[in-house]
Design brief:
By secondary structure, the chain is an alpha/beta fold. The chain is built from 12 helices and 8 strands. The structure holds 1,4-dihydronicotinamide adenine dinucleotide and (2S)-3,4-dihydro-2H-pyrrole-2-carboxylic acid. The site of 1,4-dihydronicotinamide adenine dinucleotide has 26 residues, from helix 2 and helix 4. The site of (2S)-3,4-dihydro-2H-pyrrole-2-carboxylic acid has 4 residues, from helix 7. One of its GO terms (cellular component) is cytoplasm.
């Protein structure tokens, strides 16, 4: 479905919170043909970028928009969400990207018959290379999942989850994941500097290596494991590095496992309030 012909374009989209994640998605929708006049943004601190987009900004909202996309911080939710209570229990689909805020919370605040899709996107959405996992309540059902998918596929891939509980681990892998990869770039650049490279050159090498390896992993028919083996000459330089990285106790696998678990646990903790 084309965004400009959708129920979203006809009945309107309300974006509650337009910070890093909200603006990343808004940029994608506008680029895919959603008319800015179909978008109402509520944000007490609008950025200069947002002000220039031609959307309705902190204006009176339509009574029954097609979708409300909730992109405020979980900590702001209790203040922001009740202002839209009149849109609950109706035809408006609520799509939330907030980490650790369960579907139950939306049903309790807006009404039990409110269609809700919980989503976990990531910031590469800003360049339409995001991945978003979605899961719906029973009221929303299949049609609402299709509509949420139309909206979110404008900013990258969309996957559907079997159950809401999976979203904590999804947050730990892909929601927070871009930060791990950015940290990898920072760390590789610093390590290159420690081996005598100039900072600018080392950063250039690190960024291009992560971007190139990511693109190769996506485009190749070979698995990441095989791609790793392809780099590793017997008794060569990569093998020397991998012996450090793959150390069972202190290496990369144990560290990443702990990091993903910490993010997953934090997501569960946020859900408990
Ligand atoms: N940044 C990321 O990588 C990801 C963030 N998320 C989720 O997206 C949500 C937003 O995160 P960010 O965009 O990173 O945060 P952010 O702090 O950049 O954006 C939040 C926005 O909400 C606005 N806001 C504050 N109070 C408000 C209110 N009462 N009504 C309307 N807007 C209000 C703020 O002015 C700000 O622009 C969070 O719930 C987070 O869990 C999900 C996936 C990835
Ligand atoms: O750090 C956070 O809580 C949000 C959710 C996933 C990425 N950023």
């Amino acid at each position: 479905m084309k965004m400009k012909d959708s129920r979203i374009a006809a009945n309107g989209l309300v974006l509650l919170g337009c910070g890093k994640m909200g603006s990343a998605m808004l940029e994608g929708w506008l680029a895919r043909g959603l008319p800015p006049t179909s978008v109402w943004v509520v944000d007490p601190f609008p950025s200069e970028w947002l002000k220039a987009q031609g959307v309705h900004l902190n204006a009176e909202l339509p009574a029954a928009p097609a979708i409300v996309l909730v992109a405020v911080k979980p900590q702001m939710m209790a203040e922001a969400l009740p202002t839209l209570k009149a849109m609950g229990n109706g035809s408006t689909l609520f799509v939330s990207v907030a980490a650790g805020t369960p579907i139950r919370y939306f049903e309790e605040t807006l009404g039990v018959n409110t269609p809700v899709v919980r989503a976990m996107p990531n910031t590469p959405a800003a360049i339409s290379r995001g991945i978003t996992a979605i899961v719906a309540n029973d009221t929303a059902g299949e049609a609402a999942l299709d509509e949420a998918e139309t909206l979110l596929s404008a900013v990258g891939e969309v996957v559907r989850l079997d159950q809401e509980s999976q979203i904590d681990a999804v947050t730990g892998v892909s929601g927070s994941g871009p930060a791990y990869v950015f940290h990898m770039i920072e760390t590789m650049a610093a390590a290159g500097e420690a081996q005598g490279l100039p900072p600018g050159l080392s950063m250039q090498l690190a960024k291009a290596t992560v971007a190139g390896a990511g693109a190769l992993a996506m485009e190749s028919d070979e698995s990441p494991t095989q791609l790793r083996i392809n780099v590793t000459s017997p008794n060569g330089t990569t093998q020397a590095a991998l012996e450090v990285l793959m150390d069972e106790e202190n290496g990369f696998p144990a560290l990443v496992k702990r990091a993903v678990k910490a993010a997953t646990d934090r997501s569960k903790e946020l859900a408990r309030g």
